[in-house]
Amino acid sequence: MLIGQPDGPYRLTLSVSPPQPRPQEPASLTYRVTETKTGQPVPDLQILHERALHTFIVSRDFRSFTHIHHEDFAPLTAQDLATATFHFPYTFPRAGDYLLASEFTHKDRSWVKQFTVSVGDRPLPLEVSVDLSRHKTFGQYRATLSTSPNPPLANYDAELVLHLTYQDDTPVTDLGLYLGTEVHMAAWRIDGTNFGHQHTYTPEMAAMMNAMRDHTTNPSHMAQMMVQLMRGPAKQVYRGPDVPVHHFFPTPGTYKVFFECAPGGKPLVTDFMINVEEYTEGTETAVRSIVTPSVSPYASP
């Protein structure tokens, strides 16, 4: 049994069967959420973006990525919820180490616990290929990533905008909702640290951020408001071709960023690498507050 990190008031455990999974052979992953002090299950986890527990699985070389849930395979039962137990199958594509980040929410606060799972009995040498291209092709789609500031600066708000077209440069204008939002973003620094998970940055989110900047809302209340917003009915704001996300990269370095969206209602994963710089007095990139206006320039009419 593996124990998710970091420690905290909640403990997330992971049991993998078989304990030493092999590539291309199905494995079973079972999670359980308990209170650290009492060891008792947490029976009233909140549903955010249509799921109780979101799990992101990436190979240590960042060549494979999955966003997966119990409910993708079977409905949650009353027993599952009462015992805060979630399980699903997964087939690791290749030998090597995999990073798993799982997110759950309780009492209007989200928590992330992380694991490393080794697959196969012969560890492969780690080779992370760095590709900083901002224009890439994924099947029938072309994707462009722009950031502001460019490059992003560690510990400053960065706006990332995903721009999607078809191969003939026709803009994508039929984005659907994917798990309650137009886009999910998952990011890791390529040394395997600094996992982050974000969603579409909407005008409602911008208003909350502005309230915090104006000191009219304290950070803990804002976090609760964000959770309540994500628990509510999904609202379509963006239909393409542009979708904005905001993120704080905590440290400088190269990050791998995955975007999940659904043009035409069909899931699509795009990925990029981003260099994040440390702000210094001599940094040429201007640091500014990035505020989405009440009517977003990316929103569909």
How would you portray this structure in words?
This protein has helices at residues 78-83, 203-213, 219-231; strands at residues 2-3, 10-17, 27-35, 54-59, 65-68, 85-90, 96-106, 109-119, 135-138, 141-148, 157-166, 175-176, 184-189, 196-199, 242-248, 253-263, 268-276. With 301 residues, it is mostly beta strands. The strands form four sheets. Strands 12, 13, 14, 16 and 17 form a five-stranded antiparallel beta sheet that branches. The protein has a four-stranded antiparallel beta sheet with strand order 1-2-3-6. A hairpin with a 2-residue loop joins strand 7 (96-106) and strand 8.
Our count of domains comes out at 2
Put simply, the count of helices is 3
CATH topology value of the largest domain: Immunoglobulin-like
Oligomer: single chain
Let me know the largest β-sheet. 5 strands, antiparallel
The span between the termini is: 50 Å
As a whole number of angstroms, the C-alpha radius of gyration is 19 Å
Taken in chain order, the helices and strands follow as EEEEEHEEEEEEEEEHHEEE
Give the CATH class of the largest domain.
Answer: Mainly Beta
Global outline: globular
